[in-house]
Amino acid sequence: GNEEEQTVRTDSPTVGKSTLRLQFAIAAQYGWKVESSDVTAAFLQGENLTRDIFVVPPPEVQEEGKLWKLVKPVYGLDDACRNFYLKAAQKLIEFGCKRSKYDSALFLYFVRGTLEGFIAMHVDDLDHAGTDKFYREVIGPLRKFFKFGSMSKEAFKYVG
After folding, report:
1. Contact indicator for 117, 23 with CB cutoff of 8 Å
2. How far apart are the C-alpha atoms of 148 and 124, rounded to whole Å?
3. In a designed cystine with 92, which of 50, 81, 107, 155 is the match (CB 3.0 to 4.6 A)?
4. Which residues, in sequence order, are CB contacts of 139 under 8 Å at separation 6+?
């Protein structure tokens, strides 16, 4: 990242503090439990790179005069967060969520005009709550598409 010579878009929405407070209030109003999920190696699960980046392989697999061309963004690249956000947003929209016009990191799931759930993104951490239908139609498919690590229910600390 700090040695990149090319200027790339790096903007990647993360949920705002006021949105977090609002989502907790909505969850309490509906009686939903807020869960937090962490996507494992999120940057490697993001959109493919649209530019050429070559790296020296690690010593244990290095061959004289050989470089690797990256296909996926890795931690440290300026656009790694953005590429993951773009892929996650694409999948959430594909699963029927609508991106909030007030906070681009918040996605809402409606059925016949009724809010059934929400998911808020902070880099690779996803806070979500909703009905059984929301978990079946959105969170389930999302967990099948991305590899997840830790998932916390009820009591957890959010330091985003």
Report:
1. no
2. 10
3. 107
4. 117, 119, 128, 130
